[in-house]
Amino acid sequence: MIKYFRKIRQKLLAEGKTGAYVKYALGEIVLVVIGILIVHRTPFSLKGPRTIQSVHKDYYE
To answer: Could you report the per-residue pLDDT of 6-15, keeping only the tens digit for each?
Structure first.
């Protein structure tokens, strides 16, 4: 997948299509930001929410 995107970038720069490259780069940045936001909204544990007390109890045992 990375090779595919690299080829697109190299092709756009080689053809001198700077405007198209800028649009491509901005789109790639937007996709990364969306991915980060999705990860932040996902719970870290699928077992349910943990309270601070249970975290402290696990740590100090």
So the answer is: 888 888 888 8
* DSSP, res 61: -
Q: Give, in order, the Cα–Cα distances in Å from 40 to each of 2, 13, 33, 34.
A: 24, 34, 11, 10
Place of tokens 């740590």: 59
Cα separation of 8 and 24, whole Å?
9
- H or E stretch at 11: helix 2-14
Neighbouring residues of 13: CB distance < 8 A, sequence distance ≥ 6:
21
Buried b (16+ CB within 10 A) or exposed e, 3-20: eeeeeeeeebeeeeeeee
